[in-house]
Design a protein that fits this description.
Layout lengths: L6 H15 L4 H9 L5 H20 L7 H26 L7 H12 L15 H29 L6 H6 L11 H28 L8 H12 L16 H14 L3 H9 L3 H5 L1 H22 L8 H16 L14 H10 L15 H19 L7 E3 L2 E3 L1 H32 L5 H12 L20 H15 L3 H4 L4 H5 L1
Antiparallel strand pairs: 1-2
Length: about 500
């Protein structure tokens, strides 16, 4: 049988995406000129990106993008953007990211907004290269917004179609008739929120409330807070800044974890949408409960001597950072008690709202699981009852519920599978790592959270892992970020030939 996938269509879309990538590459290039730093990392990247983009576009076919081609294009785009994103690190040749494997790890972690880093030596890197690292995460956050709201929901991937239910629209594309129009709206909203965060952070610097929050740092951290990505230009992450900066980042992370689709509709129609949105209520409640549990754990931890404000700030900051899969750290939470660390570990599996820049399983899927469980308990007693699962008064069809359960199960299986691989691979090279450290690193990379515990803690690095483990993590960051199915479906014969 012949191949039934119009792969040239996917290749053309990938090429067009790479051509668009040359525009943001101009930003670090200008910075390199300003700081009198080498231009070669970005000039080489521009040439390679243009070559790949023009070549793929020429080979590709300008036909309609169907479901199969959407799956293939999604996988190709994320992979090739990560490859291109690694080039500046390799060409610059500074630090551990001069290694192609480490560079690809850093770039994949960036474009998937994971925030896991292999860097050990922040000071050896040029400012322009470090800003590229931040910018890649911002682009990844924008990309996942467009992917989720305009592509995955249209092909019904793993419950992503729930974006429609929670937004009270018949289809995600009601905003505009074409994906391009939806993308423009999302870009405008995303850029506007980022600009507000830049202004807020830099205003603190001008007011003398944040001495090291320069314009450079303000832009860098606005990029990675709104995108809930987590890279920082400082080895101490958000802990390098004053408490008021950390509170501003809390607000930025919270907004980044809120559905941008919901924010847009609330802004152009009515704010009451927040009150009526059940997932948003669940989001707020989850943040409050997780933060409260961490506060309690810190209060009872005799090795911690924080004051009241400091306790609340570190609890809220780090719980929200893990919940939204941002991965910032206001302090080294790896030094906290087992109780506090296990609360944060559990938060890795939640994520925030569907339609946000966050990763992980996401709260709306957990809300569907909880409501379905309650429904099933009810119908097991009242066998003749017909009781649909509803979110914000809107019924969820059974096919979507099945998709959600399948996605949750697959996510857990991937985490456990990667944990086993990490433990075995560490033993192979004589790396001393506990099961909890291995599981937290596996969950953090596959669920795109960022920091873990132990050797991959918030003030540590993933550099110590064997190369084979880092390659596995690169692949699973890619698979996890694009909701598993677009990659897995490519491995089936029926996708290509049936």
């Amino acid at each position: 049988m012949s191949v039934r996938v119009a792969w040239r269509v996917s290749l053309r879309l990938t090429g067009i995406t790479l051509l668009y990538l040359t525009v943001p590459l101009a930003f670090p290039l200008v910075l390199a000129v300003y700081y009198s730093e080498p231009l070669s990392p970005f000039l080489v990247t521009l040439i390679v990106t243009l070559g790949l983009g023009v070549g793929m576009r020429a080979i590709g076919d300008d036909a309609d993008l169907r479901v199969r081609e959407a799956f293939l294009a999604t996988s190709l785009i994320w992979f090739f953007v990560a490859v291109v994103g690694a080039i500046p690190f390799v060409v610059a040749g500074d630090g551990v990211t001069a290694s192609p494997t480490n560079a690809l790890f850093e770039s994949m972690s960036g474009i998937t907004t994971t925030g896991a880093t292999v860097m050990l030596d922040f000071d050896v890197h040029a400012r322009s290269v470090m800003m590229w690292r931040q910018l890649v995460q911002w682009l990844g956050g924008l990309g996942i917004l467009i992917l989720t709201t305009a592509v995955l929901s249209e092909v019904g991937v793993a419950g992503a179609q729930l974006v429609e239910t929670e937004s009270w629209t018949p289809t995600v594309t009601k905003l505009t008739p074409r994906i391009a129009g939806t993308a423009r709206i999302l870009f405008g909203l995303y850029a506007a929120i980022t600009a507000l965060v830049v202004l807020a952070l830099y205003a603190l610097y001008l007011a003398g409330l944040a001495p090291n929050m320069t314009l450079y740092n303000a832009v860098a951290h606005a990029f990675t807070s709104v995108s809930t990505a987590g890279f920082s230009t400082e080895p101490e992450s958000a802990g390098a800044f004053t408490p008021i900066v950390q509170w501003v980042l809390v607000a930025a992370m919270f907004v980044g974890g809120t559905s941008f689709f919901l924010i847009y509709l609330a802004a152009v129609e009515e704010l009451d949408r927040f009150r009526r949105n059940e997932e948003f209520h669940f989001y707020v409640a989850t943040v409050l409960i997780a933060s409260g549990l961490v506060v309690a754990a810190l209060v009872f931890d005799r090795s911690i001597s924080y004051g009241l404000e400091e306790t609340v700030r570190h609890a809220v900051f780090n719980a929200l950072s893990i919940l939204t899969t941002t991965g910032y750290a206001s302090t080294d939470f790896d030094l906290w008690s087992p109780a506090a660390k296990h609360v944060l570990f559990t938060c890795m599996f939640f994520g925030a709202m569907v339609g946000s820049t966050t990763c992980s399983i996401k709260l709306l899927r957990w809300l569907v699981v909880i409501k379905t469980l309650r429904r099933d308990l009810f119908t097991s007693i009242h066998v003749d009852a017909i009781r649909p699962v509803r979110i914000s008064s809107n019924p969820i069809d059974e096919e979507t519920i099945t998709d959600v359960y399948g996605f949750v199960l697959l996510s857990l299986l991937f985490v456990f599978g990667l944990t086993v691989f990490v433990v075995i691979d560490a033993a192979r090279v004589g790396l001393d790592i506990s099961e909890f450290e291995a599981m937290s690193a596996a969950a953090s990379t596959f669920l795109n959270v960022g920091p873990a515990f132990g050797i991959a803690g918030p003030y540590e690095s993933y550099h110590a892992f064997p190369r084979t483990t880092k390659v596995a993590m690169i692949l699973l960051m890619w698979i996890g970020r694009i909701e598993i199915i677009p990659v897995l479906v490519l491995l089936t014969e029926s996708f290509w030939r049936s």
